[in-house]
User: What shape does this take?
Amino acid sequence: MSNFAITGISGYIGQLLLKRLEKYDDCAKVVGIDIKYPNSASPKLKFYHSDIRDKNIGHIFEREKVDTLVHLAFAFQPIHDIKKAYDIDVNGAANVLKNAAKYGVKRILIFSSTTAYGAHKDNPEFLTEESPLRGNKDFYYIHDKAEVEKVSEKFINEFKNIIFMNIRPCIIFGPNVNNHVSRYIDRPLVPFVLGYNPDFQLVHETDLIDACMIAFEKNISGSFNIVGKDTVKIKSIPALGGRKLLEAPFPLFYFMNELAWQLRIPLVEMPASMSSLVMYRWIASGEKARKILGFVPKYSTKEAILDFYQKRVIKQ
Assistant: This one.
């Protein structure tokens, strides 16, 4: 049986994965690591209040005899301190991986994102695992994701004996999501850029956790895009939840968004540099995950959105 460690255990995906590992026969215990205490407990969970940048974090791996590490800790919620975000995302990942190798972790599953490919007007129809990770230099979250991938690549080349599974999900959605993306499309008026209506891709939270469990079973090193079935046009999303579309020309959209972000107006939770994500196509292919892992998503992008909107109403 495996002893799992999950960094970022208190986050959205960490909590969902913990629930699944509770029922997983090959999981003896889950060592949770986070700077926030988790909302839910588990008979398998042993929690450590620790920062992933702590140079001594490896002592936890050693003490708990961790053999499987799942790295989920990163600054997903946009913050104004770009240097701090980089320190958490990139330096934090490097520190966790370094300690994992030092203290005998045998396999690692790390979360990246299809945003690491970048949202660019010259993107191909489908981005594959062989596509360059161009990120978007003006949006630090995407830039940091691409930088973490460089850290991972260096680690893989140095520690070839460690099974390394790099999961690249698109944006994750479902009934339990509550973050800046879900709050963005949950406004009465959802702003988008006039003249742009790219295809958009989501993966349902249940499908994502299924993919993680399949990866544990397959035990195969590699990078895998994890995406939902098909896509929707981005401007069709508000109508699915009974919301209305608010369109603005790019200069006005960018100016108003950046002004509100700089003034720290609570309604605006992302800098204007996120504009590329709603203007250009960045659709990833899930073919490699299907062929090698046998992962086939149950939910389409539209179904993931509807599941969020419908169950959110029920919860209220």
Remarks:
- The chain has a mean pLDDT of 95.
